[in-house]
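User: Earlier you gave me the apo prediction for this protein. Now I'd like the version with zinc ion bound, so I can compare the two side by side. Same sequence as before, with the ligand SMILES added.
Assistant: Got it. Here's the input I'm using:
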Amino acid sequence: MAELSFFTGTMDCGKSTLALQMDHNHAARGRVGRLFTSHDRAAAATLSSRLGLTAGAIEAPSEFDFWKYVVGSLTSGARIDYLICDEAQFYTRDQIEQLARIVDELRIDAFAFGLLTDFRSRLFPGSARLVELADRVQVLQVESLGWCGKRATHNARAVDGEMVVAGEVIVVGDPADGVGPRPEIGYEVLCRQHHRRRMTAARAGRAAVARCAAVRRAGEVSSVMRYVHHGALCA
Ligand SMILES: [Zn+2]
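And here is the structure of the complex with zinc ion:
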């Protein structure tokens, strides 16, 4: 029986690597698949992993209809045994329902890979629909670690180094029609506690340096103790 599977985890947990591995394994068995991605960073519709592997993929913007695409391909004589759907958190709820319909009515496997929650720690609509509909949901076991060394379970967005919890869920491309320098947007994985406290690595570093400076001024702690407590941050 065909299945709709959802593989999820934080950033950096190897989702795209697994997506490419999954494609390789099925192709090696003579099966024919299609790879999809959404909001690809390179805007070149490639599926790329942080380990350096890449593969060509079909970009699936929100108006893309998976059902129509697959039915059209089959009708024109193509063979499709499975779909690899990366960055599935960006898919619309309708698109997830199209995938479920493809699995049920066309008996084609659909493997979706994506984040569960956004930088506000809310479910992405597409991911929520996947959790509701998937035959299996698997949380990837490669653990990412936050700057504090704890298991990173939350995605943070930083604008010019400061963590934000409001704003557009999806920031696409270059908002360069504005005037002045464009804010630098970065993402970081954090443990829940530091996500709640909005403590990114940069902010934690600054806080530690400030603490060290205060200790030096007060002269309360020996240099050895300072080193033990704050290590290289004091250097
Ligand atoms: Zn932490």
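For your comparison, keep in mind: The two ends are 60 Å apart (CA to CA).
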